[in-house]
Amino acid sequence: MKRSDALACATVPLYERQARRILSWLRGLALDEAQALWKCSDALARESYSIVHASIPGRDLTPAILAYDGIAFKHMAPAVFDEDELAYVQEHLVILSGLYGALRPLDGIVSYRLEMGAKARIDGTRDLYDFWADKPYRMVVGEVPPCLDSSGAKASAAPPIPASTAGSKPSGAKASVGQDPSESERSLRPSELERFSRSQDARGEAPSPDACGCTIVNLASKEYSRVVERFLSPRDRLVNCTFAEVGNEGKFVQKGVRCKMARGEMVRFMASRRISDPLELTAFDALGYRFDAASSAPDSLVFLRE
């Protein structure tokens, strides 16, 4: 993770109290116990252990969207968002976190190391999935009370449609990137989009906005999306995005690093175009990926890379 003052922290994490409890629990671990939890090298364990003990809730905060520096966040490149893009992600993006449960982009957070899949048995719970229960889901769908902004005033929780989820992987180095203008030539042809739209309307598989509790564009890894998916109601609509390449015998192959890159690029794409309808995602064409209508369904959008 990185500390940055490039943007001001605008809001307080909704589950700040629970995060403080987890941080207190982490501080109670011996170094070898923390290393076993983190499953990392000796050097990284010592560094992370020092960070945990130096972190003071409410002080030395960084906006969540700038704090994470994994591959997806590099390609999201939030440091170069304009004001409208920042406003969009603050309203629509939810970042899933092992320590904080769920965050808005401009929530102020401390540095930490804790994956959602860690076997942290806090207060008698089995793991972090058990500890967090339905709290991240409730934030994603908007079933939460008002939060506080950095001044202590009430701030409204983000509206639920559309909400994207991005898992937090605090590793690597932060960088700013931009989309290659030449890739715009590979956008979906109107005839393909119209054909896909008509075919889905005819099949009647995509629920209308009025019939949904919440529309969620899932851009998180399975480790993180699990904390939301298991609580979905029949009224919720989860739209999954698959980024793949055609391998041997025509089978789709998903390459980990490229998938992470594409997830970050998709958030940037949504912010730049102020996406409000999942069908608009089919125009995504970054990193050589292109929407494949034949392999897609209303709630499962497939993007193939040649």
Q: How is this fold's topology laid out?
A:
Elements: H1 16-27, H2 31-38, H3 42-54, E1 62-63, H4 64-67, H5 71-76, H6 83-92, E2 93-97, E3 101-103, E4 108-109, H7 128-132, H8 135-140, E5 147-148, E6 154-155, E7 163-167, H9 190-203, E8 214-218, H10 222-229, E9 236-246, E10 252-253, H11 256-273, E11 289-291, E12 300-305
Parallel strand pairs: 2-7, 7-8, 8-9, 9-12
Antiparallel strand pairs: 1-4, 2-3, 5-6, 9-10, 11-12
Helix pairs in contact: 2-3, 6-11
Protein name: UPF0246 protein HMPREF0762_01422
Biased composition (Basic and acidic residues): 183-204
Family: Belongs to the UPF0246 family.
Summed up:
The chain has 306 residues and is an alpha/beta fold.
What does this structure look like?
- Residues 152-168 have a biased composition (Low complexity).
- One of its GO terms (cellular component) is cytosol.
- Residues 152-209 are annotated as: Disordered.
- Belongs to the UPF0246 family.
- This protein folds into two domains: 16-167, no CATH class; 181-225 and 234-305, no CATH class.
- 34% of the residues lie in helices and 16% in strands.
- The chain has helices at residues 16-27, 31-38, 42-54, 64-67, 71-76, 83-92, 128-132, 135-140, 190-203, 222-229, 256-273; strands spanning 62-63, 93-97, 101-103, 108-109, 147-148, 154-155, 163-167, 214-218, 236-246, 252-253, 289-291, 300-305.
- The strands form three sheets. Strands 2, 3, 7, 8, 9, 10, 11 and 12 form an eight-stranded mixed beta sheet that branches. Strands 1-4 form a two-stranded antiparallel sheet.
- Helix 2 (31-38) crosses helix 3 and helix 6 packs across helix 11 (256-273).
- The two termini are 33 Å apart.
- Mean pLDDT is 81; it is low at 149-163 and 167-199.
